[in-house]
Amino acid sequence: GFNIPEMLPFPDTVTRYNTFIYTPKVEKDTISFIIPFEIGRSQYRESDIAAFIDSMKQPDFKPLAFIVTAYSSIDGNPEKNMQIRGERISSIVSAIAAYSHNSAPISTRSKDSWDLFYTDIVATDWQFLKTKSHEEVLAYISKGDNLKKMDGLLSKHRFAEVKIVVEYDITSVRQEQAYTLYKFHKALNEYNEDLGLAIQKYIMQQVLSGRYSKTVVDKMTVPDKPQYAGMQVNKMWLKYTVNNMETDERFLKEMRRLNTLSPDNFYVRRNLVYARLKLETIDNEFYVTDMQKEIDAQLISVLPKYAIDPLNLELQIKSLQNLNKTFKVANEDEFVNAAFERIKDIIEIDDYDWKGALNLAAIFVGMGDYDYPLSVMSKMINLPNVSEDFVFVFISMCTHTDYMFHTQAFVDALKRASEMNKARLCELVDTGKLSFQMFENSEVKKAYCPVCNQ
Predict the structure, then answer these.
(1) DSSP result, 48-110
(2) Distance from the Cα of residue 125 to its chain's centroid
(3) In terms of CB atoms within 10 Å, which of 9, 21, 111, 209 comes out highest?
């Protein structure tokens, strides 16, 4: 049958990142977060440990160990500070017990914040204290309303840092899916684009194979930054593919937006041309020229030729079909010839590729051109494996010319047709689909008459 290479949206899965194949595997990870405390207060509030509770909602994991370090600001009585830190630690330890339902060991440390203090005063009004001793600093703080003035800085040093060493559980597909999504977002947060794309490609494969749920597509959060435009294309592509959605105005609009965001991304540019060819009408010659320029630029880009050829083919076919319907050109012969030449370049056919020749015939016959496909097919009539359709399409195409009846290829085609499906051949003549002009060629007579008893 006739099938022209199908024009489809194209995801970013074949770039330089291809060497990076991702597979989810169980690994240890450390999650850390800060719980702030108010001056002199040792009990946490729900809001203080929101981050901690959130971390507990991450993909299924088993906490292996907790390390809690409590800090107090340098102001205040050292013994009192020590006591407050101790209380802060025990309040967090009980929170861990309440929220993690686990018996992992908890190690605790208590620290003063002198190092933090000396680091944080750099480039502030209090930088001069950097050279002072602990005693001198504390004397300065206790003077007048200095403590009040410095509280913004000091309050940053009243906190506990909780580190959880965890091991993820990915024994079920549901757990693996949640974990892989978590790793994807983590990679993007850490600006690791290569890893991010590798994980995204893994997620795409799993969704396409039906192993992961379609719902994971919308859960992929991709930052709206130029370097992630390719991943945005992938997300869009996956959404449309798994839901069997037709390319629509929304798709086109998003590609235009991404193209503005990242003008050098060839995946975006390729899909923008694709969506335009799919949805727009060619209404002037400049449209074709501009589009051709863009396609030619893509042919020498990072993209593989097979991703661009269908677009190029579509542009030629669409422009030839719409010529004189929706637009006119300055020089018609030149325009048509250029389009035909491009089509011949795109569909490279060797002497044995009869299926390719049949595709080519479909395109050219659709545009009322028989000579070129016939010249290609003539050489293939005697290939041992050509199909019956090929032979009969060839014969019926010959009837659109006044010279093919006189060629050896036509005679050979009749012979093959009679071997393949005698009834179908005789019916062609009986119904007048083959004209009697062909009998002017005596070879045709010899080949045909004995078969159909004419």
Answers:
(1) GGHHHHHHTTSSSEEEEEEEEEEEE-SSS-HHHHHHHHHHHHHHHHHHHHHHH-----EEEEE
(2) 50
(3) 9
Tokens of 6: 């199908």
> What pTM was estimated for this model as a whole?
0.70
Strands 106-112 and 28-36: unpaired
Backbone angles phi, psi at 162, to 5 degrees: -115, 125
Lookup: tokens for 355: 């299926």
- Is residue 410 within 8 A of residue 444, CB to CB? The reply is yes
Rg (CA), the chain: 37
Instruction: Encode pLDDT of 146-200 as tens digits.
Output: 989 998 898 888 888 888 888 888 999 999 999 999 999 999 999 999 899 999 9
Reading the block at residue 292, the tokens are: 């051709």
Q: Among positive and negative, which fits the CA dihedral 124, 129, 131, 133?
A: negative
- CB of 444 closer than 8 Å to CB of 437: no
Q: Which residues pair with 107 in a beta bridge?
A: 67
Q: In the numeric block, which tokens belong to residue 382? A: 């005697």
Identify the CA nearest to 330 among candidates 285, 366, 267.
285
d(CA 418, CA 335): 41
